[in-house]
Amino acid sequence: MVFGLTRRDDSGRLDHIEASFQRMFIDDRHAFDMAMSALIGGASPGTVGDDIRATDRRVNEAEREIRRELVVHAGVHGGFDAPPVLIYMSIVKDVERIGDYAKNLYDIAADGVVLDRGELMTEMLELRGNISTLISDVAEVFGQRDTDRARELFQYGDGLQDDFDRRVSDLVTGRIGEPYAVAYALTYRYLKRIVAHLMNVLSAVVMPVDRLDYF
Q1: Number of domains forming the structure of the chain
Q2: For the domain that residue 148 is a member of, what is the CATH number?
Q3: pTM here?
Q4: Domain of residue 20, residue span
Q5: Residue 27 domain-assigned (yes or no)
Q6: I need a labelling partner for 67 at 20 to 30 A (CA). Which of 16, 85, 123, 215 fits?
Q7: 110-126: per-residue pLDDT in tens?
């Protein structure tokens, strides 16, 4: 189910809302990349912390701006656009939360943890690239309302989340011995939440408003 707002005389406002969403995705990916560079890429947390916090502030302001624009749009068009307004209101929080979890990943690095050793390191490096790309892919699918591609990404995202759950179980039960088992488990949990919020965004492309977040 492809959703959209009534344009009529509001095309400029709606274009601005869509552009703001895309900027949020760009900032989310940047914050994620910076956080992971500190956690597993060798960057000093002190060199990326200010950048991550500034990026997070931009994401938060964009969320508030989108909500304000939606309130204005709803006032103009009334109940006719209520479902898509609700969808936008819901998913803008998902996009904002991606940046929050990027900060959580950074906080692990800021505590002095560097996940640059152990049997999970290679997998973590691969995940860094894959999830970074996934953020951009979801942004593109959302912008284009590409339902076919959304369903493909759903399958990929569901597989990732299942893998994260297995890794956390392995770590907490001791089946995988890691010197930073707690940090790895937290990292997998935060990565899972990022992917889950991305899947919530995709649900807006293919599902009616009453089934958002429940594909």
Answers
A1: 1
A2: 1.20.58.220
A3: 0.91
A4: 11-211
A5: yes
A6: 215
A7: 999 989 877 788 899 99
